[in-house]
Specification:
Layout (H helix, E strand, L loop, with lengths): L11 H9 L11 E4 L10 E9 L14 H14 L3 E6 L6 E9 L7 E8 L1 H13 L1
């Protein structure tokens, strides 16, 4: 599957960074991280890094685009250094089904450049399994 070209830049900062930062930079936002659940003794210890993705491709068919390999490689390296699992959560605007990807490895020089475990679930199932997903 080929990644569709972005229709535009999402905000003024994206315009600024494309104009002013070197092309060799990997511009990566960290969407979220999961912190310890309702246990203040853990002092908000991060449990996972999470990248959020959205487009119009059905979650059953979507997988990470190789065009985004530099971003996945950077996020995976950050997750390894932080000793945290990396997850990608994909959804569409309809938000009736989520595709969750636990990223196992990213290898920029391999044909099999990304390895992951994928699970599909509804938003309600996700809410109910949220804690157990990220503690594993």
């Amino acid at each position: 599957m080929v990644k569709p070209i972005n229709k535009g830049l999402s905000n003024e900062f994206h315009k600024w960074q494309r104009t002013n930062l070197p092309g060799r930079f990997v511009i990566q936002d960290l969407d979220t991280w999961v912190i310890a659940f309702s246990d203040s003794s853990l002092a908000y210890t991060p449990l996972a890094l999470v990248e959020l993705k959205r487009s119009s491709i059905p979650p059953e068919k979507w997988t990470p685009f190789k065009d985004d390999l530099p971003n996945y490689a950077a996020l995976h390296e950050l997750s390894k250094r932080a000793n945290l699992p990396l997850w990608v959560i994909y959804f569409t605007k309809e938000f009736n089904l989520l595709a969750l990807f636990k990223i196992l490895s990213v290898d920029p020089v391999s044909w099999n450049w990304i390895r992951f475990e994928k699970v599909l679930m509804t938003p309600d199932e996700f809410r109910n399994k949220f804690e157990s997903l990220f503690k594993s």
